[in-house]
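Deviation from plan, reported transparently: 9MR complex.
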Amino acid sequence: MKTRNLLLAGLCALATACTTTSEKPLAIEQIKLNQVGYYPTQEKVAILDNCEADEFAIIDAVSQQKIFVGKPQKNSACEWSDKTRYTLDFSMVTMPGKYRIEVGDMAMPFEIKEKVWKPVADAALKAFYYQRTGMPIEEQYAGKWHRPMGHPDDKAMIHPNAASKNRPAGTIISSPKGWYDAGDYNKYIVNSGFSIGLMQAIYLYFPEYFAKQNVNIPESGNSTPDFLDEMHYNLDWMLTMQDPADGGVYHKLTTPSFEGFIMPTECQQQRYAVFKSVTATLDFAAVMAQSAGIFANYETDYPGFAKKAIEAAEKAYAWAQKHPDAFYRQDLLNKQFEPAVVTGAYGDGSAKDEFFWAASELYWATGKAVYGKEAIKYAPETFTTPSWGNVASLGTFAWLKPGSNLDDKDLIKMAEQQWTNLQNYCEEAIKGADNNAFHAPYGDSPRDFFWGCLAEGGCNQAISLIVGYGLTGKKAYLENAYRNADYILGRNATGYCYVTGFGVKSPMNPHHRLAGADNIEEPLPGFLVGGPNPGQQDKNDGAVYTSNLPDESYSDVLESYASNEIAINWNAALVAMISALDALAQ
Ligand code: 9MR
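Because the crystal trials were delayed, the predicted structure below was used instead.
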């Protein structure tokens, strides 16, 4: 045994100097596992990264007994890395408890527990409370992360590129509340609509789970689930972004350029309502229609909201039909109007997917045949995972949601086609996952790594698999969704648990103005960072990367907006994925 231990020590890079017990060093770089923990009945796998070993063992951390010994299974190498990786499968261990996995002289602690991801699900939702604008974030809800109110947004200005007869340039409008989009302080309709749309699509599968959730927000005492209270805070802002004269929706509420790393109360730049776009208007229509259905059950706390939302949605859709080419083209607009706006663009060259999502939600909210016809017209031919730039899947989810009965034969045909498309996607997604470098469907193709990939690649693939599982009962889809979550929680090439506040190796310096300016060492908890991004678009702005490999192009520095920012759409993906998987594990 001793000889092999020495050999291992030679083969592997030196393990980090802290310890799992008094004897063993913590091997974060060599043993990659989900650092939050495993459900008792979940598949349990760690990856031995760039090391060799004949066996591994699981030790009960209380009794110090060796309770399981297993053989590493070699994985296929990913195309950009010559690192050898082995799967260490200890799924046989099911008893809740604290353990460590040992490979020779190296060890990593882990836990098996009921409801083990519930704290992540709660923190991921609570993160939206921290993103709230226009209200003080109070100590009783936020602990040390409390802060005074900033960005009242009661005097936003109509930008010249958004001027209309009733609201000429310079008109002051009130547009308070909502969430800061990301690491920056602006508010964007496209991303807001997508984020709520995604979370609420999953909410509809697990309403009982969300009904029980309490994340200690100001509305926790009312009779509406905290989850919906949080959505409503942003929906209320979104309503202010519709031009009441014609139904068009402003693309964003923004300063001309990004603020520095200062607290909200220190921000001085004028905020503008910018350009009415077809994509923002349709995302607005979709999410308002979806919300009208959901909030109709919560009239006590939100009287009149459902009616207001459906009226706003129909008006928005009618505007979009009249302005199908009103795409937000920031650079072009900047050539014509001042001040130039250089904040997030959320630009898009096609509104087909937005028309499909909006028409689909409007059909379910109103029952009007005309929206069904529109949905058929824009129905996608293949399934693509949800992202802010392609929302077709949210339309698909609307047709496949629980309790959706149809009697129109054309609609039935279209909905069945959507179902087939989703199943084809799921079958393709899980192919080969068992042998992938990190034993997950996500993470084995260079295309899996881009700006915001952990959410838009990893989580949103998992969400699609979860919906696929819901429709077919195919266990393999669900198992692979758990695997993507394992990847995000630590079983990956960098060994980061990519959610702030969780895991033994966790992002400490996200590109997040609230966290970077608050003089508190720990970042605000519960946020999923963007993730490895070989595009490294920030490398000339002070971000330093130690690797160019697709799955290692991640840098935990504040400057890294291309790999280490946080964003509502990414947290929406985390909320949807982790909550669903936590609900399904119970
Ligand atoms: O999530 C967006 C990503 O898909 C784009 O590639 C990137 C560059 O345009 O922008 C991301 O969104 C940012 C937004 O524009 C402004 N707020 C921060 C968002 C996250 O980086």
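The longest strand covers residues 97-103. We consider this an acceptable substitute for the interim report.
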